[in-house]
Specification:
HAD-like_sf; single chain; HAD family phosphatase; alpha/beta; 201 residues; 2 domains; 7 strands
Length: 201
């Protein structure tokens, strides 16, 4: 293997809307209902795929005017959803970088408007040779063209690359374009799998 490709949210960065909405709801069931039926992952992914935050917010407010304020907080207070770095994975990235044996990239579903906040907050994002951001490319995982953007832009041979993601859907899509994929569940499990691939000692 010559190349390691990381997903970011859920692998290197702990991002969760619950961190914000726990401050806004007193009832956890009400919060879960709001996050599962109104500010849904599918809705958020449209912003990840290039729709503007303003447009995404306006569409949802028009549909659920009674929740205007709570909906507007999703991006208005977005930094409060960042829980910090997933240190065990950052340690693995640190080791891979120090070894000098691998090209390191990131492939992420992330809004182009919020990604600069993460870039400012997490120093390790500057260690990658390249980061392909869905919001900038107007496409996202699991669509094959998004993976091909990474492979062609950085001349990556899929059979020589390991792709790490916490979403099983994205893992299957990576395998379909010829990448060796590891379904991330914890830093410890990732370390074990990379050791089995002889990527880590």
């Amino acid at each position: 293997m010559t190349t390691i490709v990381f997903d970011l949210g859920g692998v290197l960065i702990d991002w969760n809307p619950r961190y914000l909405y726990k401050k806004l709801f007193t009832d956890e069931q009400e919060m879960d209902a709001f996050l599962n039926t109104i500010t849904t992952p599918d809705w958020n992914e449209e912003q990840d795929a290039g729709r503007t935050l303003a447009e995404g917010t306006a569409l949802l407010v028009a549909k659920h005017p009674e929740h205007r304020e709570l909906i507007e907080h999703f991006y208005g207070r977005w930094p409060e959803m960042l829980g910090g770095a997933i240190q065990g994975t950052v340690d693995i990235l640190t080791e891979l970088r120090a070894s000098g044996r691998y090209r390191l990239y990131a492939l992420t579903n992330w809004s182009a408007e919020t990604f600069p906040i993460a870039l400012e907050q997490f120093e390790f994002l500057h260690w990658f040779e390249g980061i392909v951001v869905s919001g900038t490319e107007k496409s996202r995982k699991p669509f094959p063209d998004f993976y091909h953007t990474l492979l062609t832009r950085y001349q990556i041979e899929p059979s020589q690359a390991v792709f790490i993601d916490d979403n099983e859907r994205n893992i299957h899509a990576a395998e379909a374009v010829g990448l060796h994929a590891v379904h991330f569940q914890s830093p410890e499990q990732l370390r074990t799998e990379l050791a089995a691939l002889q990527v880590l000692a």
